[in-house]
Specification:
Elements: H1 2-10, H2 19-25, H3 34-62, H4 67-80, H5 96-121
Length: 139
Amino acid sequence: MIQKVKDSIAAGENVPDCLVSRLVKEQESEKLSWEDLCMLTTAFATGGSHSTSATILWFLAFMPSHPEIQARAHEELDRVIGRQRWPTSDDEPQLPYIRAIIKEVDINQSHIQICIEIFTSGLPCSFPILDCNSSLLGR
């Protein structure tokens, strides 16, 4: 991927502004080696994919236990988006409940991950047990 972007830039093709194109364009001025380019690109790509996939997995784990949340989210999506198109980032401001679900899943999965790491390390845990009634969704 990096070589393809590098070749496209060298050929004078229009390359979208992204991490890889920036790194390639700044390679000399920042004194980045080929290994640096590969490592930085991999670090950013895998970091983003891990957090996204973790959030999706926790969403899929939490939602079957909350049919009332599913129903309210479904209603909001039908009202704002309808069934004729996919949602876009432009729809986000009109989807406060969906945004709250995503935030809640992200918050809870972060706490659960920290507790798992602490419990498996044998250290004492000072985190309270997660209370579903105190969540954004319960309000």
